[in-house]
Amino acid sequence: MNKSIIEPGNKHDKRSTTGNTRTVAMDDDLILDSPGIAPQGSPTPLVTALKASAGQDVATFHFPGHNRGRAAPSSLAQLIGIRPFLHDLSTVPELDNLFAPKGPILEAQKQAAKLFGSSETWFLIGGTTCENQAAILATCSPGDSLILPRNSHISVFSAMILSGALPKYIIPEYDSSWDFAGGITTSQVQCTIKELENEGRKAAAVFVTSPTYHGICSNLSKISQLCHSQKIPLIVDEAHGAHLGFHPQLPASALQQGPDLAVQSTHKVLSSLTQSSMLHMSGTLVDRERICKCLQTLQSTSPSYLLLASLDAARAQLSENPEMIFSQAWELAAEVRNLIKEIPGISVLEYQSFSSFPMIDPLRLTISLWQLGLSGYEANKILSRDYGVICELVDTRSIAYVINLGTSREHAQRLVSATFLPVQRVEESAESTNCLPFVDSKICLSPREAFFARKKRVNIRHSIGEICGELICPYPPGIPVIIPGEIVTERALDYLLRVKMEGAVISGASDPLLSSMIVCGV
Fold it and tell me: Can you name the residues that pair with 124 across neighbouring β-strands?
C-alpha cells in the first residue's frame, strides 16, 4: 500500500502559515492572502517582487512545467544554471498582471516614464516589432493613410497588413558611396502631407525611423511641429536609440523632441534581456485605451517575468547616473573612430555623408573597406573568422559596430588592430548600386490586399512585372526590398540576387535559394 501523503495524526490546523503566503481555512473555503511583495518606493519594484516570490517556501502547482527548476532540462541547466528557472515564474498575483497592472509592474512602468520623460510607458516582451505594430494599429484603421519611409523595418509592413493602413512612402536620402539610406527630412514629410491633401486624403499618422540602423538621426523636433500643426500623430521607431539623451555628446532622444509615440528596443543599447522593449507615449493625440487594447491583442498572455524584470533593472541601472553613465562608452567610441580613420583604405561614416540630418549616433561605428576591394560581406568574414571581431550589421559596402556599456577597452583595441587588414588586393572596389533597390517601386495592391490575394509560384526571372506576394528582405537590417503588393522590378531583383551571392541572409522568401517567387495571381 502506498504511503499516505498526509501522515496520520498530522491533521491540518484551521490556520497555517507557509513562507510568505498565509492560508486560512474557514467553512471549507480556501482563502489566500498574499501580501504585497515589492515595498512601495523600491528602486527596482519588479526585480524585488520577482526575488521575493521566487524565495517563498511554498508548494507550487502552477505553470511553467519545469516547476521553478525542479524539472529543468539538464542540457540547458548545465549551460545557464538553475537560477533562471527559479525566477521564470508565471502570472502569480504578487507579480502583477501585465495587462491590468496595479502592483510592481505598474510601479516599474511609472519609474520608467519618469526617467525617459513620457506621460506613460508600457513594458513589452515582444520586442519593438510588437511596439511598431501596436503603434500603427492604435492610430490607423482600415483604409487610413500612413506616411512612412520606404526603408522602414519589416514589422511596419506587417502592421499595415494587420491594420489595413495604406502606405504613402517617402524615399529616404541615399548615399551611393555607402550604398544605404539615411532618414527623412521635414520638407519630405511636408510634401507628402500636401500630396495626400491633393488626393483628398489626410494622414492618420506619420512614422519615422530615428536613429536608423547606422545611427542617422532625423530632425524630429521640426517633424513633430509640422505633424502637430495638422493634428497628425507622430510615431518614432527609436529601436536603436534608447540611450539617446543620456549624455551631453549624444543626440537628443525622441521624447525630448515631441513625438506622440516612441518605441524603443531597451535590449539593444541598454542592458535588458533580448526581446524586451518599452513603448512611450506623450501628448493626447493618441487614444491611450486603444494602445492598451492593441498591446493585449498582440502580446502573449503568458509574459516572461525575467524579461519584464530586466526592463526594470535596466531602467534602474540608467537611473543611477543618467547624465554620465555613457561617458566611458562615448570616450571609447571616439578613440576607436579616430584610430580607424587613420588606417589607409578604410572609410568611417561621418556627418558629412548625410549632412541633411542633425547628428549621427557617436556610439554607432560604420566603416567601409571598398578601397581595399572588399565588400562588407567579404571584410566581415575576414574580421570575424581571423580576428574574432563580431559586428552588428553587414551591408554591401560597410560593416557597423556598436559601442555600448559593456564594451571593454581590450575588445576596442582588438577591433582597431583587426582593421589593419593584412590584405594586398588589386581589384576594382566593391560595386555600388548608385540608387536604392526600391527607388522605382510601384504599388498595385495594399499590403493587406496582397497578403490575402490568391498566389502562384513563378520562376524568379519571370517574376519581373508581376505583383509580389511575399515580403523579401535581407536580415539584418530587416528592411524589405520587395513588399507584397509592389511590382517586382529588375532593379530590386538584381539587388536581391547580388547581395545573396555576396553572403546576405534573405528572409521572408518562401524559396530561400531565390530561384522562384510567390506572386499575386490577380
Answer: 277
Chain centroid to CA 144: 25
Q: What amino acid occupies position 154?
A: I
Q: Are residues 159 and 130 in contact, defined by beta-carbon separation less than 8 angstroms?
A: no
Are 431 and 461 spatial neighbours (Cβ–Cβ below 8 Å)? Answer: no
Compute the distance between CA of residue 306 and CA of residue 298 in angstroms, rounded to an integer. 19
**Which residues have CB under 8 Å from 400's CB, separation 6+?**
213, 214, 364, 365, 366, 391, 392, 393, 394
> Residue 503 pairs with which residues in a beta bridge?
none
Question: Which residue, among 279, 311, 303, 267, has the nearest Cα to 96 in the 3D structure?
Answer: 303
* Alpha carbons 145 and 148: distance in angstroms, whole number: 10
Alpha helices, DSSP H only, in 460-520?
Answer: 490-502
239: nearest Cα among 326, 145, 361, 117? 361
Question: What are residue 170's DSSP bridge partners?
Answer: 149
d(CA 331, CA 405): 11
DSSP bridge pairs for 122: 279
Contacts within 8 Å (CB) and 24+ apart, 508-512? 508/154, 508/470, 508/471, 508/472, 508/473, 508/480, 509/470, 509/472, 510/457, 510/470, 511/457, 511/460
pLDDT digits (tens, 9 = 90+) for 236-271: 999 999 999 999 999 999 999 999 999 999 999 999
Q: Which helix (H) or strand (E) holds 24?
A: strand 21-26
If 0-12 CB within 10 Å is exposed, 13-18 middle and 19+ buried, where does residue 336 land?
Answer: buried
3-state class (DSSP) for residue 16: strand
Between the CA atoms of 354, 150, 138 and 230, what dihedral angle is there, to the nearest 10 degrees? 60
177-220 per-position pLDDT tens digit: 899 999 999 999 999 999 999 999 999 999 999 999 999 999 99
- Encode pLDDT of 376-396 as tens digits: 999 999 999 999 999 999 998
Q: What is the pLDDT of residues 97-147, one digit of tens each?
A: 999 999 999 999 999 999 999 999 999 999 999 999 999 999 999 999 999
Task: List CB contacts of 274: < 8 A, sequence separation 6 or more.
Answer: 267
Asked if residue 265 lies in contact with residue 240, where contact means CB atoms within 8 angstroms, the answer is yes
H/E segment holding residue 116:
helix 104-116
Query: Quick one: cell of 24?
Result: 486560512
Residue type (1 letter), 484: P
Specify the DSSP class assigned to residue 243.
Answer: T
Name the DSSP class of 136. Answer: H
C-alpha–C-alpha distance, residues 263 and 251, integer Å: 16
